[in-house]
Amino acid sequence: MQLRHVRTLLAPQDGTARVTCMAWSASSSRFAVCTAERVVLLYDEQGERRDKFSTKPADAKYGRKSYVVKGMAFSPDSTKLAIGQTDNIVYVYRIGEEWGDKKVICNKFIQTSAVTCLLWPAENVIVFGLAEGKVRLANTKNNKSSTIYGTDSYVVSLTSNVSGKGILSGHADGTIVRFFFDDEGSGESQGKLMVHPCPPYALAWASNSIVAAGCDKKIVAYGKEGNVIQTFDYSRDLSEKEFTTAATSPGGQSIVIGSYDRLRVLNWSPRRSAWEEGKPKEIAHLYTITALAWKRDGSRICAGTLCGGVEQFDCCLRRSIYKNKFEITYVGPSQVIVKNLSTGTRVVLKSQYGYEIDEVKILGKDRYLVAHTSDTLLLGDISSNKLSEVAWQGSGGNEKFFFDNENVCMIFNAGELTLVEYGSNDMLGSVRTEFVNPHLVSVRINERRQRGVEENKRLAYLIDIKTIATVDLVGGYSTGMISHDSKIDWLELNETGHKLLFRDKKMRLQLYDIESSTKTTILNYCSYVQWVPGSDVVVAQNRNSLCIWYNIDAPERVTMFPLKGDIVDLERNDGKTEVIVSEGVNTVSYTLDEGLIEFGTAVDDGDYHRATAFLETLEMSTETEAMWKTLSRLALEARQLHIAERCFAALGNMAKARFLHETNAIADQAAQEHGGDGTDHYLVRARLAMLDKNYKLAEMIFLEQNATEEAMDMYQELHMWDECIVVAKAKGHPMLEKLRRGYYQWLLDTQQEEKAGEVQEGQGDYLAAISLYLRAGLPAKAARLAMSRDELLTNEDVIDRISTALIRGELYEQAGDLFEKVRNPRKALECYGKGSAFLKAVELARLAFPAEVVKLEEAWGDHLVQQKQLDAAINHYIEARCSVKAIEAALGARQWKKAIYILDLQDKQTAAKYYLKIAQHYAALQEYQVAEELYIKGGQTKDAIDMYTQAGLWEQAHKLAIKCMSQEDVTVLYITQAQEMEKQGKYKEAERLYITVNEPDLAITMYKKCKMYDEMVCLVAKYHKDLLGDTHLHLGKELEAEGRLQEAEYHYLEAKDWKATVNMYRVNDMWEEAYRVAKAHGGANSHKHVAYLWAKSLGGEAAVKLLSKFGLLEMAIDHATDSGVFEFAFELARLSMKQKMPDIHLKYAMFLEDEGKFEEAEGEFIKAGKPKEAVLMFVHNQDWDAAQRVAEAHDPDSVADVLVGQAQFAFEQREFQKAEAFLLRAQRPELAIKYYKEAGMWSEALRICKEYMPSRLGELQEECGREAGKKGSGGTEGLLEQAREWEQAGEYARAVDCYLKVRDPSNSGLVEKCLLKAAELAVKFLGQSQSVEVTRTVAPQLVAMKKYSVAAELYLNLDLIREAIDAFIEGEEWSKAKHVAKELDPRATSALSSPFYLCASSPPARHSTAGSPLVPRLNPASALMQGTRILSTHRQGSDVKTCADPWGLSHGAFA
């Protein structure tokens, strides 16, 4: 955590003005500072001073400066401020809820010594320390104080833990004492905890340890039981002073300790389980920190100083903006402040267990907070500021949160639904379900208070798609399970959780009463349903009707109104309930009867008087009647008898109203006599039981009070004589016999002979009882009594009377029993027969008349058939040997196996027709094998084949047919049957028949005729695969002609002819479909082409919009241009891409040029801004005038191009002078040079270059030389011409090179002339060195050509004496050599006269050198060289002495 200075709340003074104490309110909205002048300054949350007041001394006579304020604290509700003073008193000021409210002292607690420090940790509880060492508690409720514990040392500091349930006191002797109001199950010890080395003026109790510091400049962290866990020693830091005060962050994760000019910060590290020191906040000239106060939301801490200043600092780990709507500030690892930037409201999200909070999310329409820690989940409602923290193991962030209910958050994770109530730190409940749609889960949390119910929390959810479970979340038990026969798609509890509405997929609306476990269908079609908020009224829509149940306890009573639209919402505001209905473009509201809705609310609230008053204002209707009934029931349950009486009177039930009126009179009298409301009087309770028809309870109440007479009167009044007699008998009442006689007489008087007979029978008077039974028309009861008494059976008169009455009443069975009892079997058998009591008749006949048993069995069977008991009749017919009747009874009873068993025993003629019927039955049951056997037994084989055919069992049918028929007959039969099926529209069956007899073509023809193309294609694919493509194509064309384009598309595509599909849609102007097909099935650019054609068909703005939609606008313009559709291209470009117009004009011009329309092309080139292209066009077509005109008018820079073109044309025509003139006009001499070069006219090229481009002359000359060299001997004329041209041009060096390059062995004279010319030019026009070089090149060649004199002359011209002499010697012109030597180099004369020279110069005939080892035959030059070698040898001391140095020159003679 870092501290950042925010602002100065109170400016420091120049001298000492100690801020004695400070305090933040619990709501963080107020901040109090007590100055050295004992004035309390009040600031708001933003740091603006809003109020102030002066404190008072304990006794005014000592003056205002007689005390110092040592402690100050706000009450938990932030409306009071406790101030502890050194004049032995604690004052409590009521400062009010608004700024500027009058400040009143509401409590004062006088002490025996000075108050040194003070806390207000809990409601009505103020804790303070005294100078005498005591720590006391002041109770603001009873205005009394008491000692918590006492020590012998001055209390220097006091602090509480994070929850405020425990306190620590620091004393002057270093002792630290701990006390718990509630240890919260921690088990930590109380009392003296530790002894600090110095007085712990800075004392803080964090979540995980206790930190103390003082004047020894050490900060010590103690464990929960007083052991030292960390020490921060600053005793060697000379800049550090004593520690004076400390404050703990509200989350207990950070501590700030004040000293001189410095605030030190300690942050708890959960990972290391240790304190880490943060960067201290140092402020120069702040001086000693005397007080610290941390804002309760953890975002600010204020520091008071010795000089009276108050500085505010921001405490923040990090801060972020969420969705640009909320500011999220992490003021500690476990505490986050979420601020709404638009409204300024703030919510403090804090982990109660000190866990570090991860990322905070704001969900559910920016109303709900969700944050995770390592072990818990934090949830919060920003609008209500209700926060929850529940245990939650990490699930990887896979939870789904639902915030549809304002009171509870529904969390779904891994098939489990968890409910968390906002503001509660315990999970409300958890159930397993896979259905988490908010419409399939309903939660009700105390939404409407009920009498006698403190907590009402209910849940309804789906166990599976057809089963609803309801749960009481308070008790954690299931209250019901509702199974339904269809899928459920919506459910909702009412606000009390006692009734459940749900709707299924069939749109049926069901009401389920949870208490009575009854389910009722209240609407057979429901498109909308909702409970009206704050009531049990239901609103629903049934097609075009608005249905309203004002009293859901009577679901059959519904109010209906016609509707024209659909219900979209239900609103209830300001005492008005409206149903919002959307009728097309209009919205209409229907107002409900608020009075009827209010009745339900009053009943739920238990205010029956208000409900009665309301109902009295309404006219009687079905809804009102239902409400009166509901109110009457509830009033009776609540024993509000006057209201119940009024209800029954309103309902017209005067009997109950009169009865309750009498009951109320009794209750009123009892109330006057005994007090209370009189409903506990036994008469009242008994009458209420009677009203509830619980007579046994009323009897019990009477008998408990020994009121036997009242109980008997009750029964007599109700004519319940039996119960009355039972009571009288039980109590031994003297009037018992009289009661019995009276009861008997009353029965006779009221003609209740049956009941009177039962009384006589009970008393043993059987003859009288029989007479009464017969008089009552109950002969069966008389017969039962007679047969039970042997003495009556012997009384023939009685038996005759009874039997006659029985026969007259057609009670033949009872008459037969009576006759059998008196041993008259014949009459008994007759009576049994008439009474259809055949069982008794057969049993009697077996004993008395065996011959009649068969007849009776048949009659019994006939009787059972008449009674539709055919199953039972079968066995009787079998017993009577009536086989046909037995078979028909078995068939009628659908006892097929029994019928088959009987038939198998009969002859074929009799059984045939029955086999057919049974076979049809088995065919219907698809037991075809059994049916086939029965058909065959009945001789109906064709029916068996038809059965198989109709069932689609073609193989079985074919197999059976082959057995019984020829192949031709089978084919004819099947084709005939198939045609019949075809007529009946049973095409599949017909197809199978055709296929069975191998006639697929007939099936294909059938389908084609019926236009069932899919089936037709399937058959073609199966039996004529090679024709499938053609078939698809044919069908596509047919369907296209019929206008069935979608089907035609399918067939075209199946035939792999997507182009036909596109063309079809194009023809029908269905461009979207054409585009779709081209894109899906065409090539990469086919859909683009279709889009282009589509746009072309539209034209104008529509085309532009379409192409822009597909992103093909520019491409379409380009395509239109490239395709020559210039009008469309111009239209598109003009409407959308005007920058493309020049390009289109240019391409159009090029098109026109290709078409030979040069004038039109000229105009388009100019529109395109390309006049040069027009010029070039005319140049290309050699229309020089037009080119010149366009260039001069539109592109002066192109005039030169025109001239160049003309020049090129002139060159091609070999009109060189004309061409040269054009190029020079165009100022393009380089082109003239180029053209002359290409024409091989190097002299003209050199002329032009020298005249107009002298800078390039050298380069051109080199090129010309290279060109001449390339030509070789064959190019001698060229070299000569080139040399002459160089010569004329004054390029003598180049001319010399050209002359030297001439090589023509066939014309040595020409070569000689060229060499001499080169030498001449070199001597005349080149420098000395170049002349020498050329001469040295030319002369040897002349020598080789035996032109010795010419070569020598060249040497002599350049004073090359030695070379000249050598040349003469080479040519054996010795005289000339000697002459030259004599005239020009006398020193060489002696050499020419030497013997060696003589040897060398002698003719071979006269001076043979054969055999001479030293003087071979040498030419002069070789002799010279040889002479030099010999001379060298002589110098080395050789024996050679002849011809040494033949030139007579020293070795340096030619130096």
Please state the CA-atom Rg, rounded to the nearest Å: 66 Å
Estimated helix fraction: 40-55%
- Provide mean pLDDT, rounded: 81
The unreliable regions are: 1398-1455
Shape: flat
Q: What kind of sheet is the major sheet?
A: 5 strands, antiparallel
**How much beta, percentage-wise?**
15-25%
Could you give the distance between the termini?
A: 104 Å
Q: How many E-type strands?
A: 56
Number of DSSP helices?
57
Instruction: Determine the structural class based on helices, strands and strand pairing.
Output: alpha+beta
Structural notes for this entry:
- It is a single chain.
- By secondary structure, the protein is of the alpha+beta class.
- The radius of gyration is 66 Å and the shape is flat.
- The longest helix has 21 residues, at 654-674.
- Helix 24 runs antiparallel to helix 25 (941-951) and helix 49 runs antiparallel to helix 50 (1308-1325).
- The strands form 14 sheets. Strands 22, 23, 24, 25 and 26 form a five-stranded antiparallel beta sheet that branches. Strands 1-29-28-27 form a four-stranded antiparallel beta sheet, with no helix packed on it. It has a four-stranded antiparallel beta sheet with strand order 2-3-4-5, with no helix packed on it.
- The chain has 57 helices and 56 strands.
- Helices cover 45% and strands 22% of the residues.
Set down the secondary structure blueprint.
Elements: E1 2-10, E2 21-24, E3 30-34, E4 39-44, E5 49-54, E6 69-74, E7 80-85, E8 89-94, E9 104-110, E10 115-122, E11 125-130, E12 134-139, E13 144-150, E14 155-160, E15 166-171, E16 175-180, E17 191-195, E18 202-205, E19 210-213, E20 218-222, E21 228-233, E22 245-248, E23 254-258, E24 262-269, E25 274-277, E26 281-282, E27 289-294, E28 300-305, E29 310-316, E30 318-322, E31 326-332, E32 335-340, E33 346-350, E34 360-363, E35 368-372, E36 376-381, E37 386-391, E38 400-402, E39 408-413, E40 416-421, E41 427-432, E42 441-445, E43 457-464, E44 467-472, E45 477-483, E46 488-493, E47 499-504, E48 509-513, E49 518-523, E50 528-531, E51 538-542, E52 545-549, E53 559-562, E54 566-573, E55 576-583, E56 586-591, H1 594-605, H2 608-615, H3 622-637, H4 641-651, H5 654-674, H6 682-691, H7 695-704, H8 708-717, H9 721-731, H10 736-749, H11 753-763, H12 766-775, H13 779-788, H14 790-793, H15 796-808, H16 812-821, H17 825-834, H18 838-848, H19 853-866, H20 870-879, H21 883-892, H22 896-904, H23 908-924, H24 928-937, ...
Antiparallel strand pairs: 1-29, 2-3, 3-4, 4-5, 6-7, 7-8, 8-9, 10-11, 11-12, 12-13, 14-15, 15-16, 16-17, 18-19, 19-20, 20-21, 22-23, 23-24, 24-25, 24-26, 27-28, 28-29, 30-31, 31-32, 32-33, 34-35, 35-36, 36-37, 38-39, 39-40, 40-41, 42-43, 43-44, 44-45, 46-47, 47-48, 48-49, 50-51, 51-52, 52-53, ...
